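Protocol step 4 of 5: obtain the predicted structure for the target chain.
Materials: sequence only (see below). No template structures provided, no constraints applied. The aim of this step is simply to have a reference model before the mutagenesis design in step 5. Sequence pasted as it appears in the construct record:
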Amino acid sequence: APRVARALRNSRELSTRRAPQHTASSRRSRRTARANASASDGETTIHVPSLVRVCRRIAERGNVIIQDVTRGGALGVKDKGGSATTDGSYVIDAQTEADRRVEAMAIRAFREFCPTLALVAEESFEGAMGSDEGDAREILGGVSMDGDENINADDFDDSSWAPKLQRPIDASRVAVYFDPLDGTNEYAAGEREAITILCGVAVDGVPVAGVIGQPFYKYGRADAQGALGRVVWGGTGIGVHGLDIAKDAVAPPLPPAGPHVVAVNRNIRENRQEPVLEALRSRVDVRISATGFHYLLLLERRAHSALMLRKASKKWDTCAGEALLRATGGVVTDTVGRRYDYAYNLNALPNLSGMTASLDVDMHCEMTNIIRDVIQPLGRYPYDVDDPSIKVGILQGVQTPKLGWRAVTVDVGGTLIEPRERVADVYARVAASIGASHVTPASASTHFKAGFSRFRGADGEDAMRYYGDGKSFWRKVIAHVLTDGATRDDISQDTVERMLDALYDYYECPSSWTVAHGALDAFDRLRARGVKVAVASNWDDRLPALLDALGIRARVDAVVVSAIEGVEKPSPKFFQAVCDAVSVDADAALHVGDDIDNDFKGATNASFAAAVLWSSQVPSGDGRDGSYRAAHDFHALADAVLAANHDLPANTDDTAQLKKSLFF
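Step 4 output (structure tokens):
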């Protein structure tokens, strides 16, 4: 109950929080410095916050178009080809004039933003637009995206987004999934409030931003005030905005404090739903065929989960909602808890293995464990489906330790935390503040990387990088940056010391760092079920204080730092020190980190049961077992560990805590 109350409070805050406002001149300079989509060195890059502004504008105008079509009365319903329910009734797959007009407007807007954007729009992909829909300009009927500076300026500071999304991203890594009118069957039958416009943005196959337009929000309600409709939007780092949660709203408590409240489709097309609902002791509060509306119910804490245990939804149905749920501690998976891949792939658009979504990722993991157990006697589905969009499991092919996973050890820099600003930008700014204006972000980047790789904190082949407070190492790196790689002789030692002191002050401040999304909650989930969590880092002796300030130290079982231990990764002695700190043998531990040599190979050579590379993309090359395992989501990593422990043989005194259920 406290967790649900906290989630409800967080949602209410996210829906109303406003970031610092900016003046018109600062907005103009921001736009000038960073274009929506730009080309450099022959490569197109995309600025995700700007793309989200376009999506929001499309949703706002789409809301108006749908309202206009509805008032006109001629919906222009077509059947794209439906299917039968379990009782043999035929259900159409409807498309309306509103679908067609909104999609035409959206396609034009996206193409104006970035002609090479990887865009998948439902009606166009399914060949359902038809030549009779006319030119996009005619369909827009005067609605234009041209010259609208609201696309590029609003009251939200881009620095609230996750750091990786603040910087331009290669367009090949970005995909947009668009549904002009979700819930069309319901709309054609007279339903209004449940229909939505869905726009999801994925980077490296992961939903990172979502926009949901709801043209008839509060339609027919006694408390409706002002114009109909709303736009709910958000993503990783910035949270969710546009929700309208009443101050006196009471969220249903999570199980076992109350029933498991779910939303399901109106039409049942498979035989697994009822046994699953019975096993979960679920209460169905909503039966409506509208995925976007289901996600809004979860975001508003009016239901715990949405279930669609069959092939039905597609990536344009789920991408936006998944991004928003991920931003607020929720999750979307297939029927049995596997993540979908949203990388641009026209052969992997259907969610062939079903869809389950929840407002709480921890509850969801237990729920999908139960679903797996319930449907196993009912057939091979979904394991018999060749679904190219199911991500390879993080621990797929890894033998679970005999007594289960007992510890997860985590690297710090580049994994658990990362600088809020680019290091090169900080170095150039600090250098300029002490009169070394010759240092640019480009030169700082080049010479920092070279110095970081080259220098150690002492002389000798076996010297470590960090001793004590690390200044013996960082002094060398800073001097290398200031002297442009030792090519200048006009930099005094006093200048080096001034920059060293300024950078130490900056990086000792917790606001200079950002913690990986979901990491601390994932640690809580693991520890609640008996899995130890340890931080294991090559760092100087200031790290424990920084972790304290970031709220991390209280959420882990141990902190092991090379400068304090006197040994660093990839030495097996370092990894043994980590195991000793949590009293767990290496053959029951998993390590995750971003460095192939220090983390992946280091843990592997230290006989850890598994090593996982922290990366959004699996690199080429071979690990000891022929491949690298990669993860870039702490909740997905926790799910893999907890699901493996759930599947251990029947409870024993040794495994009971690892298999503990908190919800069902």
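Step 4 remarks: The two ends are 14 Å apart (CA to CA). Residues 1-35, 128-153, 622-626 have pLDDT under 50 and may be disordered.
Proceed to step 5.
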